[in-house]
Amino acid sequence: MKYSIIVPVFNRPDEVDELLESLLHQKEADFEVVIVEDGSKVTCEEVCNKYVDKLDLHYYYKENSGPGQSRNYGAERAKGEFLLILDSDVVLPEGYLQAISKELSREPADAFGGPDKAHDSFTDTQKAISYSMTSFFTTGGIRGGKKKLDKFYPRSFNMGIRRDVYLELGGFSKMRFGEDIDFSIRIFKAEKRCRLFPEAWVWHKRRTDFRKFWRQVYNSGIARINLYKKYPESLKVVHLLPMIFTLGVLFLTLIILCGLLIIVCTSAKTFGGSLIFLGLLPLLLYSATICIDSTMQNHSLKIGFLSIRAAFYQLIGYGCGFINAWWKRCVCSHEEFAAYQKNFYS
């Protein structure tokens, strides 16, 4: 068997239904599906039973341990030459497996990953969040964009790896957040051939509202410092940009407040107005760039405006998590931690 598709699941039967439905329409059929239920209270077993006669499907239930260890559980039971690691909230276009096979036949790879997109059926908020997570103006293209500031590290929502390499490296670590980047770093450190497959993309739903999105990116900022403590060389300039953005927004906000204070408390109205303009201009220019670019990509001005909010949530949320973790781990010498452990899957 060529491919084993491994999907950890936690209380998301509807998502699994959509993913399995998309697998029925793949142009390449040499694959099995391994669903690992990670201690869910609302299981997807009934959903999986609908597909047992249509797919080579294997369903397992285990106690909750997080997605990384659930992927390892599935890998131990998989039979394919390549393991394809997917999140339960993705849907595959019909040419997904075909695109992987085409890339592998063109040039061998030990590990690989693909980008993600927003489906037309996604809500406007999901599309805005998807834009924020994939745009060059927010992430530097490091999540699979054509333009990128750093090399591509496969993420666990769309990652492929040879089964023997997976087992050789011991699979995912016990890190609660950032475990996929940790795995990708170990793949590169082992000098394995790792590539971006640009045509092997998925539709990725991501978070459904901004509160959940904030929690996700805040923990990602924490994870980056945890990764730095394990692999100091892994911290690159692109990873510092959200922190710089966050501090920059704080500084510009202080300038604006000073300008308002001067206008209210003194007669130097012109000077106060100049300070307000100086503070607002960079924020307005960045917001306009995001809005225009997202509007053009999504053909929707509403999504363009929502993308401004998503971009600020992403960069400031990540930056705040990064700064918090830097202070606690690098200054106060605390052990590894995560802010939203009880809401890991939310």
Short précis:
By secondary structure, the chain is α/β, with parallel strands linked by helices. The protein has helices at about 15-25, 45-50, 65-75, 95-105, 125-135, 135-140, 165-170, 180-190, 210-230, 235-265, 270-300, 300-330, and strands at about 5-10, 30-40, 55-60, 80-85, 90, 110-115, 115, 160, 195, 200-205.
Strand coverage percent = 5-15%
What characteristic shape results from the CA principal axes?
globular
* Straight-line distance between termini: 34 Å
Q: Low-confidence parts, pLDDT < 50 over ≥5 residues?
A: none
Average residue pLDDT? 92
Per DSSP, the total helix count is 12
SSE pattern, N- to C-terminal: EHEHEHEEHEEHHEHHEEHHHH
Overall helicity:
40-55%
Q: If you compute it from the alpha carbons, what radius of gyration comes out, rounded to the nearest whole angstrom?
A: 22 Å
Classification by helices and strands: alpha/beta
Largest sheet: 7 strands, mixed
Number of strands: 10
- Order of strands, main sheet, comes to 3-2-1-4-8-6-9
Which structural traits does this protein have?
346 residues; alpha/beta; 7-stranded mixed sheet; 3-stranded mixed sheet; 10 strands; globular
Write the layout of secondary structure elements.
Layout (H helix, E strand, L loop, with lengths): L2 E7 L3 H11 L7 E8 L6 H5 L7 E6 L4 H11 L4 E5 L3 E2 L4 H11 L4 E3 L2 E2 L6 H11 L1 H4 L18 E5 H7 L9 H11 L4 E3 L5 E3 L5 H21 L6 H29 L3 H30 L2 H31 L15
Parallel strand pairs: 1-2, 1-4, 2-3, 6-9, 7-10
Antiparallel strand pairs: 4-8, 5-10, 6-8
